[in-house]
Every structure is written in C-alpha cells, then in structure tokens.
Amino acid sequence: METKNQQLFREFNEAFVKGDIEKILASVTDDIVWRMVGNDTIKGIDNLATALQGMDNGNEFELEIEHMITHGKEAAVNGIIHSTNKDGEQRHYSFCDIYKLNKHKDGKIKEIISYVLEI
C-alpha cells in the first residue's frame, strides 16, 4: 500500500506523461525550482507553466516506475518513459527525479532535480 507522499509522486509523474498541466501546477509551490541536469533550470511556477506548454509535441508517452523511495520531505523516483511520435517512431528514456517538499504532511513539491538519459 502506498503512503500519501508516494501517491503524490506517482500521480505527479503520471500527470507529466498525460500532459496534465493543471495537476502538475497544483502539486508544486509558487517558488518551484526544477533543475534538469545537463539542461535548463526552471524557477517559479509561471516559468514552469510556460515550459510545460512548450512540451506538448503530440507524442504519446507510457510511464514505468521502477522504484519510489520517500522519507520525510524528500523522495526519489526512477523508471522508464516510452515515447511514440505521430509516425510511430519510438524512443525510450531512463529517468531519476529527486524531490523536496515544502512540508512533510500535505506538502507540495518545491524542488526537483531530474536526470534523464535516452536508452
């Protein structure tokens, strides 16, 4: 059985692959910091909203969560994302996200560090 925080992180990751921008934004603090290692750092909910709108490229995504570790206000989630474009071409990405919440109970995500590799 999942804890409340594990459910939060599962639903958050599912929202990403579904393109559910409302759910993503409702799960983060206004001063969210998302650092994508080797790429950009997004600061603030408005900048995150803008970035998320730019991610809608028409691809279909499937999520496989392999591990989810939560402790207090921190969590790590890793897995694989399968992407299929409109021409049927597939790509696969291994990811690991490190999360920090603003508080332990009923917290929102205030920091994300993402590692993503195409496999």
UniProtKB/TrEMBL annotation:
Keywords: Isomerase
Keyword GTP-binding listed: no
Domain SnoaL-like: 10-111
Gene Ontology molecular function, alphabetical: isomerase activity
InterPro entries xrefs: NTF2-like_dom_sf (IPR032710), SnoaL-like (IPR037401)
Superkingdom per UniProt: Bacteria
Designated name of the protein: Ketosteroid isomerase-related protein
